[in-house]
Each structure stands twice: as C-alpha cells, then as structure tokens.
Design a protein that fits this description.
3-stranded antiparallel β-sheet; 50% helix
Length: 107
C-alpha cells in the first residue's frame, strides 16, 4: 500500500502553477454566469425552466431533467446562460444585471 512517486521537474511545476492561476482568474463570462445563478437562486427555489408535473426541462425541449429541478450546478442551465452571454455580447447589447432582466430580454 505504498503510493508511487512521480518525478516532476521545476519547469513543469512552474508551468502547471501558472496555468492554474490563469484558470482561477475569472473571466467576465464566468463571473456573469455565476452572478445570474446567484440571482436565480434568490428568486427561485427550483430551476425556472423545470416542469414539476412532468419532470422535464424546458431548455432541453422536453427532455427529462436529471437533477430534479436543482439548478446550482446544472450543466444544462449553465450552458444556457453561457449561450445567452455569447448572444448578448455579440449583438452589442448591455448585459442584464439580474436574472429577471435576462428573462425579460429576448435572447
């Protein structure tokens, strides 16, 4: 039950640390998506695009929701927000500051 040791050179270690630091820096897209998730959590207990009666996801156009309406780490909801960010920024419109503003925008 001994663990194998892996030799890592100084250069590889520095490169790994630098890339990790770059990834940790939040780009504007990730920051905006996280703000929208927090805002949605403030207004909704379960995903606003979840149908309770049928258990389906409106974003997936009728597909079954695997997370039962929990949207904090839902890849479908986050992907939807990322696509909305891309669409809004490409059109040159200002980004909404609140989830309700996003719902009112025609995305």
């Amino acid at each position: 039950m001994c663990a194998k040791s892996i030799k890592v050179s100084e250069e590889e270690l520095k490169k790994a640390l630098i890339t990790e630091e770059r990834e940790k820096k939040e780009d504007p897209k990730r920051k905006w998506v996280q703000r929208m998730v927090r805002s949605a959590r403030h207004y909704h207990k379960i995903c606003p695009y979840f149908d309770k009666k049928k258990g389906t996801c409106f974003i997936k156009l009728g597909g079954k929701c695997e997370r039962d309406g929990k949207f904090e780490a839902c890849p479908v909801f986050i992907d939807f927000l990322e696509r909305a960010y891309d669409k809004i920024t490409s059109s040159g419109r200002p980004l909404p500051m609140d989830f309700q503003d996003l719902a009112l925008m025609v995305v």
